[in-house]
Amino acid sequence: MSPLKIIIAGRPNVGKSTLFNRLVQRQVSIVDNHPGTTRDYKKGEIKIGAFDCILFDTAGIDSISSDSLNKEVASRTKLLLEDADIILFMTDARVGLTPNDIEFAHYLRRFNNKIFLLSNKMEAKVAQAGYWDFFSLGIENPIPISAAQGFGIEDLLQEIAIHINSIDPDVDGKPPVNQNLQQYFSGRGSTRRQASLLGEKNNKIKLAIIGRPNVGKSTLFNSIVGESRVVTSPVSGTTTDPIVGTTNWFDDAFQIVDTAGIRRAGKINKGLEEFSVKKAFEVIKYAEIVLMLLDNEKALDAQDLRIINFVSKEGRGLVLAVNKWDREKNKEDKLRKISDKICSSLPQFSDLPIITISALKNAGTATLKRAIIECYKNWVKRIPTANLNQWLRFKILDHPPPMIRGRRIKLKYITQVKARPPTFVLFSSFQCEVPKSYKRYLINGLRQDFKLYRVSIRLIIRVGDNPFTHQKNN
């Protein structure tokens, strides 16, 4: 039996994302009291009893609003509902029955899907009165739950398991909930560590698309995955949650994350935008390669440089792409200015090529993909110790280490201790602080001589063991 598709749907701000997070046991969707927080659907794999299911968190449907963005969001939710096996119709018992709820219930009747009516936020005393109003919708009996506190979740899962078993009796599965879920759904919370936003699969290149608001990140994401997966709009801040997509991009497997735009810290609004930006920075930490998308009109401004420096500090591979290149009139002059800006402000990435694209017209994406693959190969590259020590001898001959307190530093040998990013340990003759200029000379040499472009290089200097120290101690 293939996994069943379970869709959480309802009007805005009824607790859909809170329920989704509880069922998948991760803080995946951003939860906020502001209506319309979720705009792009999220999905996660869950197990209900013996049954594998795919759970979808969707944007709220507001039938009253005439906003164009809301209409596009609602149309995407309705497309998911058409392909659903089970619909969890969520309502807010504290508010009671609303015209939106009534209209949405009429809309759902056109489907042959199984519908579970959920009366959420039942932890509040005022919700007791509102609960009875939902019987008038005629969608069986509403199931009282509290997604925030875990009340009624076990009952919901029992009902879903019974329904699945009734439509597929060949599956040997009893309705009881998975034992690992019972403690989590008991309302006491969970001690499970939050999983990576990018998942645990190692056979895909984990790519994060990062940038300031309205530079075309979502448009590029849709272009790469080959479908209109996320909502795009000229309005800044359309994307709130990180959206993960898996695709074969020109025959290579990628796991790509679209993120919210990152504005300057002083301009970030408290609440939803603050959470969105925090999630975006978390994505950078879990990614392997970061695609920094720039606007052709304001490429590499102060905020872009802050983000790039954060990427470098985290040791991620970096690819720069300038979007909306089809609008640029003075292309050669613009490229020269961007290159000069990189050399002056990002000397560690002075060899970083600039990829020009048009996400809307799908132009330049083949070149972009080749740059990402090359960056990934450098990020995981390992260099034999023999080659490194031969290289070190030549670098020392070409430019000997400086004198420190009247003694010349003797660099004994070097080895690569890890990749992702390339990290090297260089052993010195005595404890001292190697000047930053000489350390930079060695890092630049590693980058140029071993072609470690587009990646951060970490060089750790340690003191080698003195064999006579142990004899003195004895």
Folded structure, characterized:
The chain is elongated, with a radius of gyration of 27 Å. It is 34% helix and 21% strand. Helix 3 (99-108) links the parallel strand 4 and strand 5 (114-120). Strands 2-3-1-4-5-6 form a 6-stranded mixed beta sheet, sandwiched between helices. Strands 8-9-7-10-11-12 form a 6-stranded mixed beta sheet, sandwiched between helices. It has 14 helices and 17 strands. The chain is an alpha/beta fold and 474 residues long. The protein folds into 3 domains: 4-186, Rossmann fold (3-Layer(aba) Sandwich); 205-379, Rossmann fold, CATH 3.40.50; 385-473, K homology (KH) domain (GMP Synthetase, Chain A, domain 3, 2-Layer Sandwich).
Q: What structural class do the secondary elements suggest? A: alpha/beta
Q: Record the strand order, biggest sheet.
A: 2-3-1-4-5-6
| CA gyration radius, whole angstroms | 27 Å
Q: What's the number of domains?
A: 3
Strand content: 15-25%
Tell me the overall shape. elongated
Q: Helicity level, as a percent range?
A: 25-40%
Briefly note the CATH topology name of the largest domain. Rossmann fold
CATH 4th-level superfamily of the largest domain: P-loop containing nucleotide triphosphate hydrolases
